[in-house]
Amino acid sequence: MECKNCELRQRQYYCANCLRNHLRDFRLQTHHFSSDRNEHISRASRAFKSIESGRLLRAEIARADHSLDQLADSLAQVRRDCENKRDRLRTLRETLAQRKRTLHAARLLPPQSQTLTKESQELSVLSQTIARARSGLVQELVEVFHVVEVGGRPAVGGRAGARGEWTVGGLVLPVPGDVRRYPPDHINAVITQTIHFLGLLTFYLGIKLPFEVSWSCRRFGVGMPWIGAGRGTESWAKWTAKHPLHLTSNPSSTPSSPSSSPSPTLPVSLADSEAPEQVLAHGQNQSFTTGLAMLLYNVCYLAHSQGVEIPLSQAGDALSNLWAVCCSGELGRRSHSTTPLLLPPTPPSFTLDFAQVLQATAASPARAARIRPGRSAQEAGISNMRSERIVEEEDGWDVVELGGEEGFG
């Protein structure tokens, strides 16, 4: 530098010449950088001009794609709206056709029947649906318990046919007159199966029976069935005491009834020389006969509720009567729980009297009719000890009545 002051380091002073030199250098640098900038700008402009057409084309393609997506969404929405309207139109057409059919059917009906409301028609349809469902359940129930008739012979060449034996779960249920031909264990097992079958059948059909079954004195998880009258105003309703639906060979081991009241039973008469234990055992067996008569009466009432009338002469064949119920054309149409409602047991249309069933089930109906409800088996047996004699047959002991009428079997 020409200026000595500019060479001093303590303070930075510039002279006019130094400032001019600095300004010249700055202008030269600025001019050089401006030239570089302009050159870069021109290059960028030329590059942009070369890709301008492709960039615009891509922008147009992107805009077209966006418009196409919007059109596709709008088309899908229109299709959904059309489908919904088509379904609604189909529903309206079906409803209109149904109304036309209903109106046509109403016009064909007598004038007094045209007052049926829509609710009553829907209830009728629902009742038919429930009846079909009940019929299906009953058919499955028959298959599960395997209720079939075995043996028998059809009528051929003028010869009368022979009826077979009805079984449930592979066990034969004899008529009351043949009960003594089978061991007690067999009778207990087949009656228990029949009680379960009847209970499920009445549950599916919604039927309340006159006599109710209860279970007591469980042994090894298995209860003993007892039966007695439920609530009612008919003659059978006074038989409120519980009767066993099981047999026992040891009177001391017989479980007590759920009801402490004395049971109406059929009398038993023994020789004067018989022991009191034998009198008690026979009295308990006769009480079983009364319980069996109650079970048969339940089956007859169930058949009546499903449009099957069982005569007194056939009341003892319980499984055959239950089979007739399961095959009835009126099965499941009437019930105590759904419309059309049945009257409580037993209505006046059911003319079968329990006393008649009891007389037919007993060995001597005339004598059984003299038993008062509430009288125990021991009292009935001891009071009639001299009214019959005992004859020993090949297959065991049997009670032979003097001057009595025939029952079932």
TrEMBL record:
| UniProt xrefs under InterPro entries | UV_resistance/autophagy_Atg14
Domain of life of the native organism: Eukaryota
Give the Low complexity compositional bias ranges: 247-270
GO CC entries: endosome; lytic vacuole; protein-containing complex
Kindly state a single biological-process term from the GO annotations of this entry. SNARE complex assembly
| Residue stretches in coiled coil | 68-102
One Gene Ontology molecular-function label: SNARE binding
Q: Which UniProt keywords apply?
A: Coiled coil
Region annotated Disordered, chain positions: 247-275
Say which family it is in: Belongs to the ATG14 family.
Q: Which PANTHER family match?
A: AUTOPHAGY-RELATED PROTEIN 14, UV RADIATION RESISTANCE-ASSOCIATED GENE PROTEIN
The protein depicted here goes by the name Autophagy-related protein 14
Question: Which organism was this protein described from?
Answer: Suillus plorans
